[in-house]
Amino acid sequence: MFEICREKTFAASHQLRHYKGKCERLHGHNWRVRVHLAGDTLDETGMLLDFHELDRLMTEAVSRFDHVHLNEVEPFIARNPSSENLARVICEAVAEKLPKERGLRVKCCDVWENDASRARYIP
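User: That's the sequence. What structure does it adopt?
Assistant: Structure tokens below.
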């Protein structure tokens, strides 16, 4: 099995509903996202997937969250914009755009709020 990963960053604010503590108040993060892809076969160039293509897919997945208040953007109007939920949403957005014929899959998606706090979604 082969695995590649790529990182992106974006800035966004959020506030957690049904939470008692300072994160219930409006605040922001410089979010960092890492998507891990896995697969058994390489293409004719010897790559699992071109890093530029993974970057494009990730940009498409996170661009709607950049410099916005996450609570005002779907699916976070109804769903709490926690790091865990953000990891799942980004993972699913990238996974649905992967070339199906190659057998690639998203192994996991990591989302950092800061250097010390990370959430991981494993589909």
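Strands lie at 2-14, 27-39, 105-114, 117-121.
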